[in-house]
Hints:
The chain is about 20% helix and about 45% strand. The chain contains one helix and four strands; from the N terminus they run E-E-H-E-E. The mean pLDDT is about 90.
Amino acid sequence: IADEAGVTVFAEVRLRKHGRFGSAAESITSAKRRRLIAAAQHFLTGRRERVCRFDVMLLDATGPGRLEDIVWIRDAFGE
């Protein structure tokens, strides 16, 4: 959880060491998204109303120590 110019940013980092079980992006299922949103709602409970967003960092590797791609999606759950 971070603050960027008054915006609360919930950042989710997903790493896949190999593609055997899918990519990092494929690991963010609708169930995972619901859990992240529920956790954010819990965090924001009792705090003054603030603007927030969800960022996702996706890291895919071809093997141990061989990072192939890094993608940062700002406002990943935005409309």
